[in-house]
Input
Amino acid sequence: AQSVAQPEDQVNVAEGNPLTVKCTYSVSGNPYLFWYVQYPNRGLQFLLKYITGDNLVKGSYGFEAEFNKSQTSFHLKKPSALVSDSALYFCAVRDKETDSWGKFQFGAGTQVVVTP
Amino acid sequence: SAVISQKPSRDICQRGTSLTIQCQVDSQVTMMFWYRQQPGQSLTLIATANQGSEATYESGFVIDKFPISRPNLTFSTLTVSNMSPEDSSIYLCSVEHQNYGYTFGSGTRLTVV
Output
């Protein structure tokens, strides 16, 4: 079984400050990990993924995430937040042993609010 | 990456009626997925649609309520049948992508009154 937790319903940050959105996961094997962003009235957009290799993954719009196997975490970070980063962020996980992408497990989502 | 066109983008429907949502992909894909996102909730997989076979439904979802068609490798429809206010959600179609995991349509925001 696989699961993912986003412990914060909402994260508030001032523009220009660092942004962190937390994600922890549980899989029986090795994980594939993803972050998606959803702007109002829009579908989900891919931000970044961890499949293998370097634990620090860089993605779209200046975001990055660090895979930490010992802590089973994949926190999303941005050094300097913008007001336009205000959106709903989803972490997703899949066990590498699963046959299909379709068996993703999505987190509950974290609303990010960046104030000017 | 694949581009997905989903329509309608939103609709307001009377209870007891049905709505069919269309999803068109600009390239051939083997698997298409339908998700539901209830207000304030995460995404829940409804079913997986393969061309040429019956859709595979997840626990809690049945074909009579959410019939799916997959007539070819670029198109799928999801019908929400006999709607009630509890069906008010965003419905999203998506396809596999080897680099992005998923690519998503822009969603259909359904309100049942």
